[in-house]
Amino acid sequence: MPQVQVSQTINAPQAVVFDAVTNLSKLHETSPAIVGVEFLTEQKSGVGTRFIETRKHGKQEMKTELEVTEYREPEHARMVADSHGTIWDTVFTVDGDANQCTLTLTMDARAHKLMGKIMNTLMKGMFRKGMAKHLDSVKAHCESL
Fold first, then answer.
1. N or C: at which end does the chain have fewer Cβ atoms within 10 angstroms?
2. What does the alpha-carbon distance between residue 55 and residue 88 come to, in Å, rounded to a whole number?
3. How many whole angstroms separate alpha carbon 136 and alpha carbon 32?
4. pTM given for the model
5. pLDDT tens-digit profile of 93-109?
6. Which are the contacts of 62, defined by CB distance < 8 A and separation ≥ 6?
């Protein structure tokens, strides 16, 4: 699947927005779909942090193990997961200042097998919609602080 990218302008400081997408202990506050985070490492942030995210998809819950592979506060974080036959490479970029910023979420899904590549391509629109909904939640959270 080609990369999918969505952006959202948020009326909040860059540092607040970056914290909203990288403070793993509080992800449930910024996205209602996330119902739990379990750390697999002693560290709770930064490169090398591994965790299991539990996310609701409709009536089902899905657990995904992720690792923070890049972390440049307050503008860039990358999290990678190898789940369900696909490498999910997710990058959050926050560009802005003390009053307003743009949060960009870029996802690259690289399937291991042909069937996964076909399914990911067919589901690209659904991924984009879910990513936009996630950014809407982050925006609402950050602007309410």
1. C
2. 15
3. 11
4. 0.93
5. 999 988 999 999 999 99
6. 54, 55, 56
